[in-house]
Design brief:
231 residues; alpha/beta; TIM Barrel; eight-stranded mixed β-sheet; 8 helices; globular
Length: 231
């Protein structure tokens, strides 16, 4: 199947090297174009709105040229699971000997199920955008049950994964974050919950401004371990 789609320009851009995006690994990042959510703080509006510019063939050639220097690749976006040929693409990456991390909003649990079953992904970062009763308001995405299905799948699997939330203090309060923490606890999440502080860039997808409200970290629930990023 991959031979038929190698010319597809699904990737918007490539970050050639990172030590931050895949814990304990030297990785590159493939930024897939398009997303089915519209989070106002998204710092990749051009990736969400624009078409891809890099073919799968070019991406695989890049990985071939980095064998021995990188050990992994992060598939991000946008939302990489929107791409209909992600599964054979992951198979081709695995042939080259790379580990694969996927950043996802969890809207395609069926694909995640197949990737995990076939051992085509090594690590998943799942974005928990907002309390469930605020999810649609923040993301403009209606099918919250698909995110919940992905979360349940990851908790019940043996895949290495993390749950993370981008925190903009004008959009989410300590009570909101505690609602997320309680939901994770009830669902049986036993990993670390990552709170990622919003770092202002321009433009953002929703023209989000710098944070004005103070966020009191001392109010956060101790039900599950929390690690802060960019604070």
């Amino acid at each position: 199947m991959l031979k038929n789609v190698l010319a597809d320009k699904a990737i918007h851009s490539i970050t050639k090297f990172t030590t931050l995006d895949y814990p304990h690994h030297l990785a590159s990042i493939f930024w897939f174009s398009k997303c089915n959510m519209a989070c106002p703080y998204c710092y990749n509006p051009q990736i969400v709105r624009d078409n891809g510019t890099i073919s799968l063939e070019t991406a695989l050639e890049f990985l071939q040229s980095r064998q021995g220097r990188l050990d992994s690749v992060v598939l991000s976006g946008g939302e990489c699971t929107l791409y209909p040929h992600l599964e054979p693409f992951c198979e081709a990456i695995k042939v080259l000997g790379y580990k694969i991390k996927i950043d996802t909003n969890g809207s395609h649990p069926e694909l995640l199920t197949r990737l995990i079953a076939k051992k085509l992904v090594d690590y998943i970062a799942l974005d928990y955008k907002a309390p469930l009763d605020q999810y649609e308001t923040l993301t403009h995405y209606r099918h919250i049950e698909r995110f919940e299905e992905s979360l349940k799948l990851l908790i019940q699997s043996d895949i290495s994964f993390e749950v993370r939330t981008t925190l903009h203090s004008d959009l989410l309060t300590p009570m909101d974050i505690n609602t997320i923490i309680e939901d994770l606890h009830v669902k049986g999440y036993r990993g670390t919950y990552y709170l990622q502080n919003y770092l202002h860039v321009e433009p953002t997808l929703g023209e989000t401004k710098m944070q004005q409200n103070q966020f009191d970290l001392s109010q956060l629930s101790p039900l599950i371990p929390i690690e802060l990023r960019n604070f």
